[in-house]
Design goal:
- Helices cover 41% and strands 18% of the residues.
- The chain has two domains: 3-134 and 259-309, Periplasmic binding protein-like II (D-Maltodextrin-Binding Protein, domain 2, 3-Layer(aba) Sandwich); 135-256 and 329-343, D-Maltodextrin-Binding Protein, domain 2.
- It is globular, with a radius of gyration of 20 Å.
- Strands 1, 2, 3, 4, 5, 6, 7, 8, 9, 10 and 11 form an eleven-stranded mixed beta sheet that branches.
- The protein has helices at 3-11, 13-23, 43-56, 69-78, 93-101, 143-149, 178-191, 193-206, 216-223, 233-241, 271-281, 284-290, 322-327, 329-340; strands at residues 33-39, 60-66, 87-92, 105-106, 130-142, 169-172, 207-211, 228-232, 246-249, 257-265, 296-297.
- α1 packs across α4.
- By secondary structure, it is α/β, with parallel strands linked by helices.
- It is built from 14 helices and eleven strands.
- Keywords: Signal.
- It holds the Pfam family SBP_bac_6.
Amino acid sequence: MNPSRKLFLKMCSATLVAGSMLMSGVAHADNKATLLVYTAIETDAMKLYKDGFEKAYPNIEIRWVRDSTGVVTSKLLAEKNNPQADVVLGLAATSLVLLKQEGMLTPYQPKGFKELTAAYSDSAQPPSWVGMDVWGAAICFNTVEAKKQNLPKPESWKDLLNPIYKGKISMPHPASSGTGYLDVSAWLQNMGETAGWKYMDGLHANIAQYTHSGSKPCKQAGSGEFPIGISFEFRAHQVMRSGAPIEMIFPKEGLGWDIEATGIMKSTKNLDAAQKLADWMASKESNQISTNWWAIVAYPGLAKKLEGIPDGYEKLLVKNDFNWAAKNRERILTEWNNRYNSKAEPKP
């Protein structure tokens, strides 16, 4: 077995147990339909989506299995011959493209799909996955700690190679975190593979820790554990709102990005209920919930100005070939682990 795949399966073992525990209780005396939904959405958002959907469809209940993007993706691949989930919701589009390539999704065009921005969903008709929102890379910079440590403010990805930042930066592990993978994928696509790996070699010299969460580097920056955290704008915005002395930095070379999206598993035995969830996730109501945290949502005209997010944010997003990122995922992660895994955060 490929070493990268072994790492994936090890990382998701705890979630497999949690999923089994959830599944043991799917039967209901009140005859409610139950959907087992695998997700990587932030815990801040889970309750609002669940409550909104179950209010619209009181005879259907969502049961979540939640973990970081890489762990959820690995879990789904591990279960390919014995699928458990009915729906995948809030997983990175690059992961959903991979599931589509593996023949694990059933195409479905939800009600209201034509109202959504087409660029943020699968281009096939009918689509195998439908976008919810866009999330992009951001650097969380602790201004108080930077002043104490006499650290200059970085303006670009290249600036992070400055030796003054040695041991001062944390970043998400790309095998665990969708945010980590969108960074690595964007650097390789936009710098070219040779220059991209050379860049990551230089960055690795300054990295203190690769975390197993896309949110954690920004939280670490907020607490001052490490003054610089490579994260994403949702979490940066939340940490800023909590009162931490964080400044969001959007590197001038452009931002790696991905799409949170919804797909229906081909193996579901609850197709009607799964389609209703897909319909609701494509609705204006669901997208309105997403605007609480995301600067770009699939339903046009709803997004609102968020503190710290610059005007023209969408123009900062770099070229991103989701098919390439999915097809080359295992190869990229194997190489990344061989080079950099020595600084990975210990797994709980």
